[in-house]
Amino acid sequence: MEFTAVKGFKDILPDEIPYWNLLEEEAKKIFKVYGFQEIRTPIVEKTELFKRSIGQETDIVSKEMYTFQDSKGRSLSLRPEATASVVRAYIQNRLYQKGGVQKLYSIGPMFRHERPQKGRFRQFHQINVEEFGDPGPMSDAELIVMITELFKRIGLMEGLSLNLNSLGCPLCRPKFREVLVKYLEEKKQYLCSDCQRRLELNPLRVFDCKVNSCQDVLNDAPSISDYLCDSCKEHFSYVQYTLKEFEINFCVNPKLVRGLDYYTRTTFELHTSELGTQNAVAGGGRYDGLVKLLGGPDQPAIGFAIGMERTVELLKKKKQLQIQGPDLFIAALGEEARKKAFSWMIELRRDGFWVEMEYEDKGLKAQMKRADRLCAKKVLIVGEDELSKKRAALRYMDTGKQVEIELSNITKAIKEVI
RNA sequence: GUGAGUGUAGCUCAGCUGGUAGAGCACUGGGUUGUGGCCCCAGUGGGCGAGGGUUCGAGUCCCUUCACUCACCCCA
C-alpha cells in the first residue's frame, strides 16, 4: 500500500503553482501601495488564545481545531485562522507603540478538522490582512476598495458579489439580540433542530441557515439595520457612501453574519456562484474589541481573509496561463557534441537563460520531440557534421525556420538571438 | 458527526441479464538510418480499492472494511 497524504491535506502540484504565484504577487503589489507590511507568525499557538478570541462556543474552537499537548502538558493548537495570532503578535511586540495605524498582512496555511468537500480542506491557505488603530469608517472603505482592486486586477471581480452588513457594536447589538431571540422563541416550532440549538448558543447564526422553513421565519424577523445606534448607522452609511463613490457594486445583506464572535460593525464577504456551496471567497470585518479582549490596549481593528484555494480555483477556470518553456534546447548528437553542449548550457544558464538538453544518447527525432514537449522556444542542433563544419543549426520552433550559427564563440552568438 | 454517490491500466472512462479484462490519452519504438507539433502502425502497462462469502465460474451478486467525492454542518 503506497502512502497517501492525510485526509483533507493536498499537494499543490507544479501545474497549479503559477496561479498561486499570480495571486500572491498581485496581492503583494497592491498591499504595498496601500501601505501594508508583511508579518509572519507561527502556525502553532497556545490553545487558550483561540478560545478567547474566536469564542469558546464556536464550531471552529469547540470541534474543528487540531489541538495537542506538548511534552510539558501544555495545550497547543494549529491555527484555524490568522487574526488571533496577528493580534497576539501586535500586542506582544508592542506594535501599537509605533504610533499611528499598523497595517499588516500575512499569507499561509490554516488548519481546521472539518469534513473535506469542494472548496474546503483541512489545511487551506489564506491571505490575511489586518489594520489596527483606526476606528473610523475610512479604513473600512480602504480595505474593501483594496480587496476589490485586487480581484479586479486578477480578473475575477466580474463574477463576484460583495455583501455588506453592520453587526452593530456593544451598545446596540445586545438590544437587537434580545429582540431577535424573543421573536425566534415565538417561532421556535418552525425552526430546524440546528437552529433551535443556535438559538441558545449564537442566535445571529440562525440567519445562515439554508433550511426553507427557517428562511420563512427569518423573512419577518427583526433586522439588525433597524437597531443600529446612531454612531453605528453613521459609520455604516459612510462606508456605503465611499463604495458608491468608487463605483463598487455591493449589496447590503442584513442576514450576513460571521462565524467568529469577535466581529463588530462592518462585515463583508465576497461570494461566487461558480464553486459549489462553499461560495465565500473572501470575508472580513471590524473587530474593535478584540485587541483589548486579548490583553492589549483598547485599539480598534479591521481585517479580512482571502481563501486562496477557492480563488485559485476561479483563476484556473477563467485564465489560461501561458506555459513557460526553456529559452533554448540543445539537441546534441554523439558523445563529443554532448560534452560541448553541456558546457555551453552551463555557461548560458550562468547568464540567466533557461537551457535544457538530453543527456542520454537519443536520436534527433526524440530530442526534437522532447524540446517540443518542454515548449522550448529554440533548438540548437549540433552533431558530427556541424562540429566538422564548425557551424550549428538554430531552429525557431514556432516558425520552423532554421539559421546557421558559427561554432566559434557560439554562446555569445546565441545570447544575441535568445 | 449525518446522508448520498464512486472506486477497473500513469490519466479519463467502457465492460449488457455472472463465463475468465478493453478504448482514448500518455509513454516507447517504427513509417522519415539527423529534425517537433498532424497522420498511420506496433509495443510496454492493470487482473478490476482491500478482505470474506455465494457459484463449476465474479469488475459483474451478497456482506464487511478502507479510500475518494459531493451535500448537510461549518466557513475563506
Description:
- It is built from 15 helices and 16 strands.
- The mean pLDDT is 90.
- The strands form 3 sheets. It has an 8-stranded mixed sheet.
- With 418 residues, the protein is of the alpha+beta class.
- Helix 1 packs antiparallel against helix 5 and helix 5 (137-153) packs parallel to helix 9.
- The chain has 2 domains: 17-172 and 228-318, BirA Bifunctional Protein, domain 2 (2-Layer Sandwich); 328-417, 3-Layer(aba) Sandwich (Rossmann fold), CATH 3.40.50.800.
- Helices cover 38% and strands 21% of the residues.
User: What can be said about the biggest beta sheet?
Assistant: 8 strands, mixed
Uncertain segments of ≥5 residues (pLDDT<50)? none
Distance between the termini: 47 Å
Within the CATH hierarchy, at the fold level, what is the topology of the largest domain? BirA Bifunctional Protein, domain 2
CATH top level of the largest domain is Alpha Beta
Q: Helical element count? A: 15
Any idea what the shape is? elongated
Total number of beta strands: 16
The order of strands across the largest sheet is: 1-5-6-11-10-9-7-8
- Our estimate of the beta-strand percent is 15-25%
CATH architecture descriptor name of the largest domain:
2-Layer Sandwich
- Give me the Rg, rounded: 28 Å
User: Which range best describes the helical content: under 10%, 10-25%, 25-40%, 40-55%, 55-70% or over 70%?
Assistant: 25-40%
The CATH homologous superfamily of the largest domain is termed Bira Bifunctional Protein, Domain 2
How many domains? The number is 2
Helix/strand-derived class?
Answer: alpha+beta
Query: Can you give the mean pLDDT?
Result: 90
